[in-house]
Amino acid sequence: MSKKFQIFVSSTYEDLKSERDQVIKAALEMGHIPVGMEMFSAADEEQWKIIARQIDQSDYYAVIIAHRYGSVHEGVSYTEKEYDYALSKGIPVIGFVIEDGVHWPPVMIDTDHDARVSLERFKAKVKKKPVGFWKNSEDLHGKFSISLMKLIATNPRLGWARADEVAGPELARELTRLSSENAKLRDEIAILNKREEEHESNKDQDMIKILQKNKTRICYRKDERDAKWQDHKDTTLFSIFSAIAHKLISEASIISIRQELAFKFFNYESHRHYPIPRNYVDHWINDFSCLGLVMPSRKKHSVNDDNDYWALTENGFRVHSSLRRLELEVGTEIDVNDEPDDDL
Predict the structure, then answer these.
(1) Are 291 and 207 within 8 A, CB to CB?
(2) Which CATH architecture describes the domain 214-330?
(3) CA-CA distance, 71 to 76, in Å (whole number)?
(4) Percent of the chain at pLDDT above 90?
(5) What is the mean pLDDT of the chain?
(6) How far is Cα 287 from Cα 82, in angstroms, rounded to an integer?
(7) Does residue 344 carry a pLDDT above 50?
(8) What is the domain class of 6-166 according to CATH?
(9) Closest Cα to residue 97, out of 60, 62, 71?
(10) Residue 87 has pLDDT above 90, yes or no
(11) Is the pTM of this model over 0.70?
């Protein structure tokens, strides 16, 4: 009798989408049933009941860890909570931890001290059990397949079989029950996902309102160092952020931020360092940092480069994306009079 096994795949969400997809793909290629974390968005006790029920029904549990600890509830992340729960239920677990030294996007790395400490403690816990180390999603695909085959061989589980391969009316009743439960579960997941999307949207709208209600002033001067500051304008933090956010997706120096503001507010294109007051820009960057929208860039630069570089945080990128999406929905026009530009 051929059996399929249900594999619960656990990880943080945004930073490990492609890696989790590869693990789910590997499980499907082996003929098994993966339960992907994209079905859930950990946020409250109601969701935990759904997740715990899925772990209860799973034959094996796999956890993928990179450089984020994840959403915390009552002092522990949901990923670690799922791992502990699987162990408490006697479900065989396999862990996959990213190798040290592997290049990883800075925006996908925890910067909070407490989160880093908790992450290292969690990694140490996972390494007490069978664990594999991976470099990229393709490497993880192969190592997961091999580890799962070994785990199935050494820890056989009940699994699932076709109805026509198993006799008895009890199976038919169980399949009917599971079908009904599956339909109910899908409805619950849809409601929870919608609630989570509304929550994130509300957070973005609240941030936009904060930026809009904070007034400031901006002025500029031309390249001559002895020129006076001129053309003072009233504006808001919202307008300042909207003007420079696209520059901060990767990173931008304070110099390039000042130049971009001069162009956006005064249509003045400067190739020097000082079109906008430095103390104004420092004050705005400090405000954006306090609001969790920007952070110092983590990219490495030459030792001779004494410029300050800033980049969007994950929250900052989400707010920028929301603003840009609204612009695109209304309709925008690219200035075809702009000269082509290339940094090569």
Answers:
(1) yes
(2) Orthogonal Bundle (1.10)
(3) 8
(4) 51
(5) 86
(6) 37
(7) no
(8) alpha beta
(9) 62
(10) yes
(11) no
